[in-house]
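chain below, 429 aa
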Amino acid sequence: MGLHLYTRSWEGPLQGKGGEWERGRALLDDPRACGEALARHQGGNPLPAFARERPDVAGIASKLRLAEGREHIVVVGNGGSIRNVWALYRALAEGRAPRRLHLLDGTDPSGLFGELLSGGGRFSPGNTLVVPVSKSGNTENVVQESEILLGRGYPMIAVICSGKSKLAALVEGRGLDRFPHPDEVGGRFTAGQNNALLPLALAEGSDANARRLDAAFAAAHARMAPAAPSGRNIAKALALQLWRAELAGYTELFLPIYCKALGGLGELVVQLVHESYCKEGRGHTVLYAEAPESQHHTNQRYFGGRGNMAGLTLRVGRFESDPPIQGGVSAGAFLDLEHAGVVAEAERRGNPHMVLTLDALTPEDVAGAIALWQWAAAYGGVLRGVNPFDQPAVEGSKQTTIEMFEGFGPAIQRRLARFREEASARLEG
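prediction:
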C-alpha cells in the first residue's frame, strides 16, 4: 500500500491546540481506550465488523458464469451497497473490463430505470445481468425495481443478508440465484465485501482483482486498527487532523480529486463522513469535486468565501500511461503543475490544506485509500463521542417512504397531490 499524507499546509493555520483536541489525541493513541470506545457500538468487539469480515472469493469465482455473453451489469441499490462497487469499478475496471457496470439507484423515468424499461435502449434481457444489493432487503425502491425488471425478463442474482425481508421473499418466490451480504457490516463500509466484489468480478469476468482487493483490505485494516498509535497509523492521523480543523471552526471540507478514475472514491468519502460522524450537531460538510475543473469554480469559494473551509486534495503519483504534452512535460506532470498551484496558493493565504497521494491506481493502493477513509470515519465518531456505525437520520425518511407506499390510498394521494402542488408553485413577478 502506497499512501502519503502531506500536512505542512494544514498544520500551520491550526497551530493552536485546544484541550479537547489533546484529549482526543490521547484517546486514539491509547490502543485499549480507543478499542473500548469502538466496542461500545460494536457489541463489545473493539475491531469493527468491516475489518473482521472477509468475502467469499471462491463463491464469487463460481458465479462468473452468470455474466458470460452479457454486455452490462446493472447493480440495483442505494447508498453504500452500491457506492463501494462504483469506487472500485471506476478506479480499476472502467474502460478496461469486458462489460460495463451501471448503478440503478431510483425510479427516475428520465434515467437508467426508464431506459431499462423502454426496450429501445442499450439494455435487453439478453445482454444485461441485474444484481440487486440490499443489506436490509426492505429498501422499497430496490424491491420494486427488481420485481419490475424481473417481469421484463431480466436475469438476476441478488446480494442480501440472511434474514427475512421483502427482497428475500421475492428471491425465494421466483427461485432466483442469491449471494450473501455480510450481516454485520454496514453498507458504507462494505468495499471489501461480497456486495462490492461480486459485481466487480462479474463486470471483469475474473476474480483476480477480487482476490487482490481482499488481501489488500486485510493488510490495510491490520495497519490502521487501534493497536497502532497515530504516529504510525495514517487513519488516526487523518481523523485527528480533521477533528482539529473542526474544533478550529473549519466545518466544511473541500475535496478536489486530481484523477477522474477516483471519482467514485470521492462520492464514497462523502457518504462515509456524512453518515458516520455528522451527528449531534458535529461533523464536516464534504464538498467533493473533480479537479482541475474545480479550480475554475469552487476555488473561488475555497479561497474567497467564508473562512470555514479546509481543503484536502487527492492525487496519483504515477499513471500506467502518461503521454507527453510539450517540452518534456507529460500529461500527469501538467496535472501536478495545476495541483501544485492550488497548494501554493493555500500556503500563501493560510488556508488549511492536506494532500493525500496514492502511489498508483493498483488494487492495493485503491483498497488502502478506501480503508483509510473507513477507519478515519470510525475514529471520527470516537473523537466526537457519537456512534460511527449507525445512521438514524437516514433511516427516518426511508421508513416514512415505506409507510406511505404501503398505505397508499385516498389520504396518501391527497398528501402527495399537496406536495406536488406546493413543489410546483411559481413566483409571479
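The first strand starts at residue 3 and ends at 6. The chain has 18 helices and twelve strands.
thats it, cya
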